[in-house]
Amino acid sequence: MSTATARALEHPRLEEIRLEAVLHALSDPMRLQVVRFLADLGEGREAACSAIELAVSKSTTTHHFRVLREAGVINQVYRGTAKMNALRRHDLDTLFPGLLGTVLDAEAAQRRRTG
What we know:
Blueprint: H1 19-26, H2 29-41, E1 47-48, H3 58-71, E2 74-79, E3 82-87, H4 89-95, H5 99-114
Antiparallel strand pairs: 1-3, 2-3
């Protein structure tokens, strides 16, 4: 992995992204909520962490974003004082064709089923 500086965040390169890490990242309901939010924004769109409301503490929210970033699910960059997030959909679809779409479809079906 690349070296992180004070304002740069470490992300796995494409060849470093592992299926088991992605599945682990997607297995948590809060992290899946973040992924759903970013997927609904559309390809290449970004959102600040503060725009994605999670019903957990700030430190827990930070943990969830870190798990997603370290698994290669999201890309995070600083823009001024905001940490911006974008889904690495193209990378995930390249490595694991259909996985993200299937997970998001299953999550939507579960939400409809459970209200």
